Amino acid sequence: MTGLPAVFLDRDGVLIEDSGYPHLPEHLKLIPGATAAVRRLNRLGYLAVIVTNQSGVARGMFDEAQMNGFNALLVKRMAQDGAAIGAVYACPFHPEARDERYRHPDHPDRKPNPGMLLRAIADHDIDPAKSFMIGDQPRDIEAAQRAGVSGFLFQGGDLDVFVRELIGA
Ligand SMILES: [Mg+2]
Fold first, then answer.
1. How many of the other CB atoms lie within 10 Å of CB of 52?
2. Is 125 annotated for ligand binding?
3. How far apart are CA 147 and CA 141, in angstroms?
């Protein structure tokens, strides 16, 4: 199979501090080593793809435009440090959404479901067998595995140290 290698990255707790539904510019605090890790993976040919559950939308804490704006700010901040994020997939759905537009009992995009990864794989001609995911919760790892992608649990610290150990660099 031809296809690109990709690294799928959870957002909160992997690229940025999980301060509890971050969505405002002042909530954007990069995890140590986050940009260095993505730069390293970019150099090795990996397309970096963010896959993030954002139930704050369903919970009425912020809207989709704010979510998209915050994600764009993150991508820009990382690009300023030479780290290229190729695509962002965010899932605003939740079973107990206040807003019925976002209420879904088990949305295929909401991790541990693999919908966002499967769409990214199709959209960007990614080879799952050459790809891996880094998440900070078991549901991230499950979503990866269900998309045929290896998943690795990041439990804090420096993301670039974690990535170097993963890839043996
Ligand atoms: Mg997370």
1. 24
2. no
3. 10
125 is annotated as an active-site residue? no
> Is 12 assigned a ligand-binding role in the annotation?
yes
Please name each of the domains of the chain with its CATH number: 6-131+139-163 (3.40.50.1000)
One-letter identity of residue 47: L
Closest CA to 69 of 116, 27, 111: 27
Does the annotation place 136 within a ligand binding site?
A: yes
Q: How confident is the model over 17-40, as pLDDT tens digits?
A: 999 999 999 999 999 999 999 999
d(CA 1, ligand 1 centre) in Å:
30
d(CA 44, CA 111): 27
Per DSSP bridges, beta strands 132-135 and 87-91 are: unpaired
Distance, CA 12 to ligand 1 centroid (Å)? 4
CA of 100 to the centre of ligand 1 (A): 24
CB 48 within 8 A of CB 159: no
Residue 81 falls in the annotated catalytic set: no
The answer to the question of whether 160 is labelled as a binding residue is no
- The pLDDT tens digits for 139-151 are 999 999 999 999 9
